[in-house]
Amino acid sequence: MASEPVSVVFKLYCLSVMTLVAATYTVALRYTRTVSSVLYFSTTAVCITEVIKLFLSLGMLTKETGSLGRLKSSLVENVIRSPVELLKLSVPSLVYAVQNNMAFIALSNLDAAVYQVTYQLKIPCTALCTVLMLNRSLSRLQWFSVFMLCGGVTLVQWTPVEATKVQVEQNQFMGFMAIAVAVLCSGFAGVYFEKVLKSSDTSLWVRNIQMYLSGIVVTLIGVFLSDGAKVMEKGFFYGYTPWVWFVVMMASVGGLYTSVVVKYTDNIMKGFSAAAAIVLSTVASVTLFGLKITATFSAGALLVCVSIYLYGLPKQDTSKVAKADPGKDAKTKLITV
Q: Judging by beta carbons within 10 Å of its beta carbon (0-12, 13-18, 19+), is residue 209 exposed, middle or buried?
């Protein structure tokens, strides 16, 4: 399906919102995990996020179908009468649930700026899954940018930065391992979901509903297994503040907004967005958490930003070069002589 023509202003709007959502969500989540004396259950926050995404997707499908009758028919056909499809979408639901919970663990132990940079490892992970699962190829420049990105993340982690205004105990190694699991989940689930989307003409919002229904079940099981006794004692919404609800809403809206950005923007703009989110997260971390920027962090973050840009550059089409006009080449040689 060809992309719909949109104005530059709308693309810049998409880019700006995507950047603000990514940076704000990371910083706000970090804030809720480090400054509050009453800590909420992260598993319940992940579950509530899935519920909100489901209702938002239902609203978008209602708009797409145009009437409640068509919405009902679509849900009956694609949800109630399609248990195999629900089972198929339960795979990314489970993986995304693990990824989202790992984000809470990571941001409880790492600064928002460090997390934002290190999380870009999802790019090489996604690239590898794309090659293996979708049989696509990467250009030499893309492979070079992948290795550059890994080098940049290594520099960021080489000398751990210090946040002077954070008083809670942190485990840098646990935070990095949580990010490692999150990027693996992100790469696999993203490519798997793309493969499912392109295997049929089913609406994106229908696929989202199928996935979020499975996601709610998966995350509820996660709440029971991880914090079941504490939730029964203190309540499902224990420790929830306006900031926690803000994080939940940002996660919900951000997840759905990504599909809009993918539809209307290109890889270069998404690369700029990721780089800008890193910069904004760094500035916010210095202001809110007293982050001390080191030379290795600055160098690593710069390498990551450049690699993201290079990875998003379009592949050069060289198919026309081989079909050069012999007569034109001969004339060019005569002129040169």
A: buried
* Predicted local distance difference test score (pLDDT) of residue 94: 93
| Cα 244 from Cα 251, distance rounded (Å) | 11
**Residue 234, C-beta contacts closer than 8 angstroms, at least 6 positions apart:** none
Q: pTM of the prediction?
A: 0.80
Round to whole Å and give the CA distance between 24 and 249.
11
- SS3 (DSSP) at 336: helix
For the chain, list residues with pLDDT below 50. Answer: 1-3, 317-324, 326-337
Q: How far apart are the C-alpha atoms of 165 and 304, rounded to whole Å?
A: 26
109 within 8 A of 174, measured Cβ to Cβ:
yes
Instruction: Provide the phi-psi class of 144: left if phi over 0, else alpha when psi is between -120 and 50, else beta.
Output: alpha
Who contacts 39 (Cβ-Cβ below 8 Å, separation ≥6)? 33, 239
Q: Which of 79, 57, 92 is nearest to 193 (CA)?
A: 92
In DSSP terms, which residues pair with 49 in a beta bridge? none
| Closest to 121 measured CA to CA, from 307, 335, 327 | 307
Task: Tell me what pLDDT residue 267 has.
Answer: 55
Decide: 79 and 212 in contact? Cβ < 8 Å: no
Q: What is the pLDDT of residue 2?
A: 42
Residue 183: partners with Cβ closer than 8 Å, 6 or more residues away: 119, 121, 122, 125
The strand ranges marked E within 10-144 are none
CA–CA separation, 81 and 103 (whole Å):
34
pLDDT at 102: 94
Crossing angle between the packed helical segments 295-312 and 140-158, to the nearest 10 degrees: 160
Q: How far apart are CA 291 and CA 163, in angstroms?
A: 4
